[in-house]
Design brief:
This protein is of the alpha+beta class. Helix content is 16%, strand content 23%. It folds into three domains: 1-47 and 247-269 and 279-303; 50-156, no CATH class; 161-246. The chain is globular and about 65 Å long. The model is unreliable at 1-6, 8-17 and 268-273 (pLDDT under 50).
């Protein structure tokens, strides 16, 4: 079973206590959550697609102005930046705040990742922008250093969700627990469910809460360009059993390693087995966490 936590991993492969099925499910779910949170703590950001609000004063270190072009550059707290939802500017000394909204042609994503795989972000590459550009004159030195305020809503991370309904093969729409990021346009996520995994093309989506455009978020429906090839299971006790995600597989692998590490060290003890050819003895610890963190290194947020 897969959980639709920020990275999502299979708990069927994770050892659990010899208890009731419900107790095992609860413990293994919590173990997967702890592993997911460890991934995000190490990367210092949420990896699944989110809509973030960032407000900065400038010109300053994080909100600079090019002296030749007048273009302002905002360094974002989170990456990869997929798109700018909205932006507004005002003077830092204005209380109450007076904001001037910017038109969509007055901002842009700096160094957006190349769309070379049909996905919003090239999977596994740890590529992506961490800056947003504002048109000349939106931020300037006329009133001095840190005299202006910029507030930007931007979409960042990897679109990621879980199936909230079971489906037979041959469907063109999927109800999922989070459509954030899937409103970018054509995206090719994977549906991960063991031997029944497949790649699909999402052409559009709708949100149950009525949000639209780049601001779409929460549960909703993904509309596919072609019907699914396999049947996919629905949630168990509200936990998605199949993921629909663009999350890089290297991140998913690191999360699995951390979950297995958690299973090996949490309350376990060394087991002695008679020595046989090819025998492997597992003790109460492991270096799987170090392997996971090495895989995650390219995805760390550095400010």
């Amino acid at each position: 079973m897969l959980i639709s936590a920020p990275t999502g991993i299979s708990w069927k492969t994770i050892p659990g206590p010899q208890a009731s099925a419900a107790a095992q499910l609860a413990e293994q779910f919590n173990m997967c959550l702890r592993a997911t949170h460890a991934v995000e703590a190490y990367c210092n950001q949420t990896l699944r697609a989110t809509i973030d609000l960032q407000t900065e004063s400038g010109p300053s270190r994080r909100l600079t102005v090019d002296g030749n072009t007048g273009v302002a550059r905002l360094t974002t707290n989170n990456w990869p930046v997929l798109a700018v939802v909205s932006a507004q500017v005002g003077y830092a000394g204005s209380f109450p705040r007076v904001w001037a909204p910017l038109d969509s042609n007055q901002y842009d994503v700096d160094e957006a990742p190349p769309v070379n795989t049909g996905s919003a972000v090239p999977a596994g590459s740890a590529q992506g922008s961490n800056a947003i550009l504002l048109a000349p004159g939106m931020v300037n030195w006329s009133a001095g250093r840190r005299s202006m305020r910029v507030s930007v809503q931007y979409l960042n991370g990897w679109p990621h969700c879980g199936l909230m309904t079971g489906y037979a093969a041959g469907v063109n729409a999927l109800h999922v627990d989070d459509v954030t990021g899937f409103g970018l346009g054509q995206i090719q996520p994977g549906i991960y469910e063991g031997a029944f995994s497949e790649i699909v093309t999402v052409t559009s989506c709708t949100a149950d809460n009525g949000s639209v455009g780049l601001a779409m978020n929460g549960p909703g429906t993904l509309h596919l360009a072609a019907a699914t090839q396999f049947a996919h299971a629905g949630p168990v006790d509200g936990i998605a059993t199949a993921l629909v995600t663009t999350m890089p597989l290297v991140v998913q692998r690191a999360t699995i390693l951390l979950a297995v590490h958690e299973a090996l060290v949490r309350g376990s003890s060394a087991t002695t087995v008679p020595r046989q050819p090819g025998i492997v003895i597992h003790g109460g610890g492991s270096d799987l966490d170090l392997n996971a963190f090495e895989l995650l290194l390219p995805f760390r947020r550095v400010i």
